[in-house]
Amino acid sequence: MLRIRSLTAGYSRPVLHGIHLDVSASELVVLIGPNGCGKTTLLRAITGIITSQAGTITIDGTATDTMPAPALARRVAVVAQGGGLPAGFRALDVTMMGRTPHLRLLQSEGGRDLEIARKAMEQTDCWHLRQRPVEELSGGERQRVLIARALTQEPRLLLLDEPTSHLDIAHQVTTFRLALALCRERELAVLAVVHDLTLAAAFADRIALMSRGRIVATGTPHDVLREDTIEEVYGAPVRVLRHPESGRPVIVPEVRAAAELASPVQQGALP
Questions:
Q1: Is residue 78's pLDDT more than 80?
Q2: DSSP string spanning the chain?
Q3: Which pTM was predicted?
């Protein structure tokens, strides 16, 4: 599905260096790494917002740099980090915006477009919100509408850039359960940028770990989320435990190191 080979890309200078990455249909791959390591830049390269300086990106065997923008938008949908919703629109109006790549210039949406939007909103459990102004929606409701809009594009590849930022734990879990279900049911390839390593471990089929513009490890959560690897890349000691039911990794800060950073007052050394 998505195939990236030897990708170098960036802005005034390269940010990504020799990236190799594959994401298959029905697979959820999570991209992790410290702030500034190039995760969002990689998503921008996939969508053509920035141009590649070397290497190739292909979707279903077709190079993305040969696709016109509407054709690329019909294959790739993005739920952007902190993606805002335009005020003054209903949730259904925003969802219908996902049909834009499928319409000719000045063409209006038809019955088929509405049916596609309805199914997307039902699948993301927000059809009941269709008449609500988006400015009245909660954070979790807004996220479901954003994902519904992306699905209305009928993409082959779904890119999620920190889809759970600013959401509470219940909505974080709900969002990833939804992403995984859509991945399987629609045979989507899903690539998600995530900061919470335990959340990534709970839902990812595979994890790709980035550091300084390179992918330094890929594999199952068990393969990638190792104490020595995390400390080397993030510069922070952690303990990797096992979830008592799923057996998947649970990452927690190294407690002794945290205690050593406490102030003398916190440690009880001062009155």
A1: yes
A2: -EEEEEEEEESSSEEEEEEEEEE-TTEEEEEE--TTSSHHHHHHHHHTSS-EEEEEEEETTEEGGGS-HHHHHHHEEEE-TT----TT-BHHHHHHGGGGGGS-TTPPP-HHHHHHHHHHHHHTT-GGGTTSBGGG--HHHHHHHHHHHHHHT--SEEEEESTTTT--HHHHHHHHHHHHHHHHHTT-EEEEE-S-HHHHHHH-SEEEEEETTEEEEEE-HHHH--HHHHHHHHS--EEEEE-TTT--EEEEE-HHHHHHTS-HHHHT---
A3: 0.89
Domain that holds residue 46: 2-267
**Does 184 have pLDDT greater than 70?**
yes
Calculate what percentage of the chain has a pLDDT beyond 70: 93
CATH number for the domain that contains residue 176: 3.40.50.300
Q: What is the pLDDT of residue 270?
A: 52
Give the chain's domain count. Answer: 1
